[in-house]
Amino acid sequence: MLKRLITTTLLLVTASGVAAGNDYHWRNITVGAGGFAPNIVFSEAEENLAYLRTDMGGAYRWDEIRQRWIPLQDGMAESSYFGIESIAADPEDADVVHMAAGMYKHYPAAMLRSFDRGSTWEVTPVPFAMGGNEDGRGLGERLAVDPQDTDHLLFGSRFDGLWRSRDRGASWQKLQSFPHPGLGKPQERWSSRGGVSFVLFNSDRIFAGVADRRAAGLYRSDDGGESWEKISGGPHELLPVQAAAAGDNLYITYSDDIGPNGIESGAVYRLDLEIDEWSNITPPPAKAEGGFMGLSVSEQNPETVAVATIDRWRPRDNIFVSHDGGDNWRALESRSRRDVSATPYLYWGEEESDFGWWIAGLAFDPFDENTLVYTTGATVYRTDKLPGEKLLWQPWVKGIEQTAVIALTSLPQGPELLSGFGDISGFVHEDFDRSPRTMLTGPVFANTNQIDYAGAAPHIVLRSGTPPHRAEGPVPTLAWSDNHGRQWHPLTVPPLKMDGESRRFDLSGDNAITVSADGETFVFMAPIPQRSGDRGENWRSVKDLPEGLRPVADRVDGERFYALDFASGEIYASNDAARTFAPLNSRGLPKGLKAPRDREQAWPLLATPGRSGELWLVSEKGLFHSTDGGHSFRRLQGDIAVEEMAFGRAAPGRDHPALFAIGTRGDLRAIWRSDNAGKSWQRVNGADSEYGRRYRTIAGDPRHFGRVYVGTDGRGIVVGEPTGAMRISRKEQSETGNE
Which are the catalytic amino acids? Predict the structure, then answer.
């Protein structure tokens, strides 16, 4: 007898574009997609209804009336639920949708169901692990609703076999009859398993694929899942990754690994279900690089099938369409062009946008076989003219913001916001409602880890980052701008002789760079910091500073820099533009503080804008404040544990900049604001603007009181401002000298 799980459900209400919390309004700053969406799922119950699952940014629903995607989980506080393992739309009731959510194998996992298209969710925590952001996230779909009995659902797990619900997803039991019980979670932190890669109901039959090598293959049940048999035939050396059924044919894509990276070979097969005959229908050339993953079949014509390659880096990935069940194929890439004017970052600094990579999601519109959609590692493309000789694809991304944000800087002049992203460099944001015209190029970074500006000359901006993906040879990882970040100049730093060896520290992206308040001095954070007084033409070692310390520029005085020795709690200061440093015999800081080790982590020693000699230290032992240039610090007795802090415009009637923080009070991780220099804090995001509490970086706006920018890990940049606050017009900006 199967053991029944005790159901635990919780009703969560999500936002629909704009969220309000604690008298604040929250919304996204537009970039337009930006990350990997493993699959798109169309509803078969209603035309123009679709769901998108992302690997770390939650799920979205297409709203045909508003012509935009609606984020469905902004009110959820559990971070792990933003890694979506699978989605299944009820084939009979358009209002019902189910999701499997869990980001990593050691994180919480749950089955979610909604009876109002994802506006609210009932959450059932489950004991089996998921991996919505692990290898194999392009497999599936793992979750399926029985079209003959929509109370009956099956879910193919990665680590623990096949699971069933008989009560429309309210509770789940392991299906002991399935031959592959799972291999359990691997011990290695970053390794994963394919497990049960897909589940498919087809008339009176159920099919399930297994992508664990020990039991890899296709399984079939003809009695509603009570018994199973492994189907013989097919490619023995490959793993089944996706499947689609049409008429008497079952189509399956195969790869030699679960992806999305590391796939070297693959195939496409068709199984005639009437005579149990396999056919290898792999599109030519047979020995091409990479494998296959994305797969879809037309609802109107069972012989119209589309498949997508994956990891075909040379020359590039492709989509193939057949109208005769796979006997003949036509490649789409050479017939395609892309209009990315609405999301110009997809040019990536090149003349033409890329066709795409990691094409795991591929779907015909079930109501119109001329409409084909595919997902990539950066966007979602759609065409409505599939039969055309020349195909025009456009990003289908309005409302989707699925990016990891690493760095944010709000300037007192020029563009209101500069951003650093993971995988897509970063942007200059001058219109929050449009995808930025200006990407951080010249050079392009894969990740932009840090952005700094000159406090008294904010047109001078510096940034550091990591080399572009698949870069050939050494490339710059440092850059500077003299026009508020709109154009950039690469920076290189000569090798540093250490322990008898000559080493370069400017190629990995591990080392940050800063600039003096007047914009005249650049300091590069090699183990022995290097300074330049001529915009990178010449570099000299900073003197009298212990190895490994990182200088921070005063925001007013161009000659002053500060550095913290985390072990001793000592502040070193320079009054000659970082040429030399001396200890201050500072008081008030504890010894043994933890120094940041992650290059993407915000630096905890901060200089206050507009106030020379005022410093803040964010630490695991509290928030510390100095008003005498670092000679003495006092610990603030606040009631939140601050993780990261930023400065904004002072509150009306006050002269100290407002403070914004990512921090925790009790077990509540949230966004906070202090208008009295850290003496007290108020929460500024509410229950509708949780974003999985996946807050990564923060910046206050020096021009607009109360406005705060938060970089999330998966939901892009969100901006919050007090209720009733409106962005001033571009004309007003020009009149106040902010253009």
Answer: 55, 423
